[in-house]
Specification:
Number of domains: 2
Number of strands: 19
Radius of gyration: 26 Å
Distance between the termini: 81 Å
Shape: elongated
Strand content: 25-35%
Order of helices and strands: HHEEHEEEEEEHEHEEHEEHEEEHEEE
């Protein structure tokens, strides 16, 4: 029996060298389809080549299809990959299958949000196999103890939602959450950010329509005054980062404010957040009068990113302190309706939603 296990261990250890190079494995992703949604991982063969090779082998064989997540810690980890979870009548054995094939491969890879790490038999570090856990929030106490072999690049919010599922006293979810299918694919080429190449003149041919729960607001853009802010705004609108945020601040006679990502109805995906970043200010001489659109920021003038405000009155104290990048040309009546929403400490008492920012190109002919 011991010799058989050793033979399997050697096979698992050498699998990657006989089939794929680390460079080839690094160019692959795995798409996990679950009953709660989809998530995608990228492998780290430079950190744990044997684990990556073994897991890729299992995926190619369909070994994960029909398994279920069998252990959850809310906002901590989700654990799956046990072949015994395919049997709905073997619940007492969940967590005991698929182990004993891989030696531990420790590296400097950390157990940060989205990391995939190998499950081990307690007390035996050289006992990993098909089982894995995904880190929902940073778990530094696990660093240096378990083998990190991949990371989630899309769908970490799906993993977080799974972790929120009620469990019994052993961490077993009270609802079956199944991995229905896992496939390998080539890593797609880097996405070219929208509005990366347009000139200032070309940017000026666009306008934005704010589709709100109170009606539409149309704004013209000022790329000649604030090209980077306009480019950033159009980009975030195009990818849908603004979809479902709220007007979170209302100050009658002064401003209404929206675009704050944390007010979004659904948390943004990793794909969306890769375009989220702070902007250097582009202050200009435009006065903050009714209808002007300007970028919000914190104490640091270079901390603006997505949140912006529409001026509803005389806001001259903001001149040369905030970047003006547009102006409302239609829908000021909608702005006034939002401004009239009852608020407490500047926070509206009802949800006023920015459902979408629609980009339109002006026909100059």
């Amino acid at each position: 029996m011991k010799l058989a296990i050793l033979a399997w261990l050697v096979l698992a250890q050498d699998f990657y060298t006989a089939t794929k190079t680390p460079e080839e494995m690094a160019n692959r992703q795995a798409v996990f389809e679950t009953t709660r949604g989809e998530f995608i991982i990228e492998f780290l063969p430079e950190k744990a080549p044997n684990h990556v090779g073994y897991v890729m082998k299992l995926i190619e064989e369909g070994a994960y299809n029909g398994t279920a997540f069998h252990r959850l810690i809310k906002y901590g980890i989700v654990q799956g990959g046990d072949p015994k979870t395919k049997d709905v009548n073997a619940v007492a054995e969940y967590g005991t299958g698929g182990l004993g094939f891989l030696k531990r491969e420790l590296s400097d890879a950390l157990h940060i949000r989205g990391a995939l790490s190998a499950v081990q038999v307690p007390g035996d570090p050289d006992s990993a196999g098909s089982q894995f856990f995904i880190v929902v929030t940073d778990q530094p106490a696990l660093d240096g103890q378990y083998t990190v072999f991949a990371r989630v690049v899309e769908g970490i919010n799906v993993i977080q939602t799974i972790s929120e599922t009620p469990t019994d006293e052993n961490g077993l979810p009270t609802e079956r959450i199944e991995i229905t299918n896992v496939t390998l694919r080539d890593k797609p080429p880097p996405e070219i950010p929208p509005f990366s190449t347009e000139t200032v003149e070309e940017l000026a041919t666009y306008r934005a329509v704010l589709e709100t729960s109170f009606g539409e607001i149309t704004m013209e853009l000022f790329p000649h005054l604030a090209p980077n802010h306009v480019r950033n705004f159009l980009r975030l609108a195009k990818i849908g980062l603004y979809d479902g945020v709220t007007f979170h601040r209302v100050v009658p006679g002064f401003v209404i404010q929206t675009g704050f990502v944390e007010t979004r109805a659904e948390p943004p995906s990793e794909r969306l957040m890769q375009y989220f970043g702070n902007l250097e200010p582009e202050f200009n001489a435009t006065s903050h009068v009714a209808g002007i659109v300007s970028m919000a920021h914190g104490e640091d003038p270079a901390s603006g990113n997505s949140s912006f405000f529409i001026v509803t009155g005389n806001a001259s104290p903001l001149d040369n302190l905030y970047t003006v990048f547009g102006r409302i040309v239609d829908g000021m009546d909608v702005v006034q309706q939002i401004e009239a929403v009852p608020a407490e400490n500047e926070a509206p008492l009802e949800r006023v939603e920015l459902m979408k920012v629609r980009i339109e190109q002006i026909d100059e002919h």
